[in-house]
Amino acid sequence: MNWPHWWRKAQDLPKPAGDAAASAWEGGPPYLGMKPFGEGDSEVFFGREQTCGELVAMLSERVSKPDLLIVFGPSGAGKSSLLRAGLLDHLAREGLPGIPEAARWPRRVMSPTEDPLGQLAVHLAALTGGDALAIREGLRSRPGDAHLLFQQASMTESEQGRVVLVVDQFEEIFTLASKARDDASAHAFVTALHAAATTPTGPSRAPAALVVVGVRGDFLDRCGGYPPLQESQRAGVFPLAPMTDSELLRAITGPAGRAGLSVERGLADLVLAELRASGSEPAAGVGVLPLLSQAMLATWHQCDGRSLTIAGYGAAGGVATAVQTSAARAYSLLSGNQQALMRHITQRLTVMTVDGHWARRRIGRTELLAGYSGEDLTDAEAVLDHFVEQRLMVADSEGTIELAHDLLLTTWPTLAGWLEEDREGRIVLDQIQERAAIWRRDTGDT
Questions:
Q1: Is residue 37 within 8 Å of residue 85, measured between CB atoms?
Q2: Where are the beta strands (DSSP E) in 18-106?
Q3: Could you tell me which of 114, 112, 67 has the C-alpha nearest to residue 229?
Q4: 268, 282, 338, 366: most buried by Cβ count inside 10 Å?
């Protein structure tokens, strides 16, 4: 068979051998499924090397030409992974071109959630040692002075640096924060980010922060509703293009090689063919990476010794059914009571946007489990742990839980059916939850 050029390139990837291979990656499965890559996953983050270099170069331009940097692309293009395992990992290791000391600058990642100002205040409090509630109120009343807080936070030992702030899933400004009916908070949040990224501070008269905003492409136009973001768009945005065939091949074979696994000849060819057949071809860029990673994770679970095989890939369901097969299998392993609780849990982990679409909702584990007791509490905790272990939910270091990807809302028939059945009731439930969230925020009751 005449193998295509991208397959030949994939064969040239370095592959550890023997015991060295087995010890090259000790982090469990080298594929993350729908879970985004984080800084700690950079060892198995393949395929975006050139794109990461281009993003680093564009960010370095913001040092001398201050402004927010907006990164946008379709759902499933890998924005979160690029920002975390790509950009932030590069900064930690090498700094910026010509600025190696940038490796010592404080780095933070946040998402807006229903309360973007509150989330920003939490991160600034962690950096400055201040009180989060007091910082939030200060940001709300004087968002244009946010650069002063960032200046305090940017001190590294005895030198003045910059805070590198990545605001991931910025579309939550529109899907979650707008649901909380707190437009003033959202506008103050954007104003604060812009002030931090553009206002001269300190003896160097340089802004105290480099701010990178990651937003889904279908929300980019709505960013123009905020005047500071209009300026940032004019300064230049970073479009995240779909991965090429050769990049996708690195994403398939690279993690396997890092973990000391071989990839059966023809498997990568089959995966790409099924990506195209599923309607998620690279040219479309919609859902490619989570589908790919989930399919490879499921194949890893079917691993034959030290090799990922075509037979294992087929047994795992392949790209076409990777998400729904994995979710259905995880769900089938729950007890009857746990399955009933799963429906209640997903109600809390989803929200209907103002335009009638479903979106994921991030929520604290403690808040999510509130109201359960006895056996129900034990089972609810088991459900969360099980779905996090299967990488269908994501738990972060701050104790929040969310579904791993938007694809679950549409490609897992069980969940999609629950959402459709609950549509009318959820409108009322969401209103109650929003009012409760506003009350807790305004009273400081966490």
A1: yes
A2: 69-73
A3: 67
A4: 268
Residue reference for tokens 């800084």: 39
Q: At what angle do helices 267-277 and 245-258 cross, to 10 degrees?
A: 130
> Quick check: 76 and 287 in contact, CB under 8 A?
yes
Among residues 171, 162, 163, the alpha carbon closest in space to that of 214 is found at 171
pLDDT in tens, 21-51: 333 466 688 999 888 899 889 999 999 999 9
pTM: 0.81
As a whole number of angstroms, the distance between CA 344 and CA 50 comes to 43
Spatial distance between the Cα atoms of 22 and 32, rounded to a whole number of angstroms:
18
Please report, for residues 254, 256, 314, 324, the alpha-carbon distance to residue 298 in angstroms, rounded to integers and kept in the order given. Answer: 16, 13, 10, 11
Of 82, 89, 8, 7, which is closest to residue 243 (Cα–Cα)? 82
Contact 258, 16 (CB under 8 A): yes
CA distance 339 to 437: 27
Smallest CA-to-CA distance from 309 within 320, 323, 299 is with: 299
**Residues contacting residue 137 through CB under 8 Å, at least 6 positions apart:** none
